[in-house]
Structure formats: C-alpha cells, structure tokens
C-alpha cells in the first residue's frame, strides 16, 4: 500500500515570497513511517485537488488570522495577517475534517480547526481572559520548556502520549475561547489556558497549542506516529 501521504501546510515569508515547512514536521512524519507532502497555499479551488492525494493533514503554526473570522476585534497584539494563506487553509481544514481525514492542528492550526467548527479565540489572551493569565509568548526559545500541560485522563491524546502531565514549549498570544462544535477540551496549562482539543467522535482529530515539532521529544514522536497510523487506516478505508 506504500507510505501514507501526510500533508503539511507551508508557512510563508511575505518579505521574500518563500514557502517553507519546519524540519521537525518533515522529520517527525518520516520517522513515523509517513511520506511528508508540503502543501503551499494557493487558490481556494486547489483544495479539491489536494485532498484526494492526502491521507492525513497537519495544520501548522504561523501568524495570526483576521479576527473577523471568529467575530473578534483587531487587537494591537495581532501580528501579520496573510490573507491568501488563510483563504486557502480555512476551507482546506473544513474539507479535510468533513472527509473524516486524520487532522493534527498545531498552535494556529488548532485555532483554525476550532474556528471552522464555529468556535472562537481570544484576540489577545492576556486581555481577553477574565482570570489571571501567564504570558505564553514571553520570548522564551521555542525549543525550551515553558510550562506544564495537564491532560484529561480519558482523552485519546493521553493514551497516545502515555502521559497526563508533562512540560511543553509555548509561542502564542492567542488561545481558544469558545469551543467549536464537536470538540472537547482535553488539555490545560496551569493558568487554565486551553492547550489541547479533540473530537471523540472521530478516529483522529486533535489540536495542540504547543509545538511538538520543535521539541523533538518522546511525546512528539508518539503524536506523529499516531497520526501516521490513523492515516494508514484512513487510506485503507478509502480504498487507497
């Protein structure tokens, strides 16, 4: 049957016009037995052409998206918005989830999944939450452990990672506010910020707020391995 094809949404540097993907995603998929396919943003019509080629999708991190997508407002902390990327990745996420394809959302990717399902995010977590909140983008190196995450004991993510509490990195000023339809919250930071969501009605639909591709730890390896396993099952069920 061959290795399952795992789509990895490309990041984009507007100053140079470069598409790129973090090496941790590429190597994580390869080490797990999948074949990484970097997916650059394009016309929304391209979504229908890409999806039949893929067995799973990773929605990667990156800059903020327009608050109009979730009914928010333009906070001064919101960074560069790349509308062509957003105009492609939102329908890509919606179509992939609609097909029952395994999807892993990382940071911005998790937030896209949530918004596609009718949820919302805080424009800026430090100002939006009504309880004291730590700065989850405090300038710490992306490969450095910043805080713990505690997972629900009965979560699929807990079974995958074989852990309930562990340290993660952090690089975000936004986080999930209202949870999208079908998702349940399965992980929190010590300050209560949502760090993981999943849809228990699907074989694999998981979002994490941290960056496993940058840590390169055992938890990340387990997560990529589970995604590739789910991709194989999806391909088999689709007759591939």
Overview of this protein structure:
The protein is an alpha/beta fold and 240 residues long. The protein is 30% helix and 20% strand. The chain is built from 8 helices and 11 strands. It is globular.
Layout: helices, strands, pairs:
Elements: E1 5-9, E2 11-13, E3 18-20, H1 23-31, E4 35-39, H2 47-50, E5 56-59, H3 83-98, E6 103-106, H4 108-116, H5 125-128, E7 147-151, H6 156-161, E8 165-168, E9 184-188, E10 194-198, E11 205-208, H7 212-215, H8 218-237
Helix pairs in contact: 1-8
Helical proportion? 25-40%
Mean pLDDT: 96
Strand arrangement within the widest β-sheet reads 4-1-5-6-11-10-9-7-8
N-to-C order of helices and strands: EEEHEHEHEHHEHEEEEHH
Number of strands: 11
Fill in the keyword field for this structure.
240 residues, two-stranded antiparallel sheet, 8 helices
Task: Summarize it.
The protein has eight helices and eleven strands. With 240 residues, the protein is an alpha/beta fold.
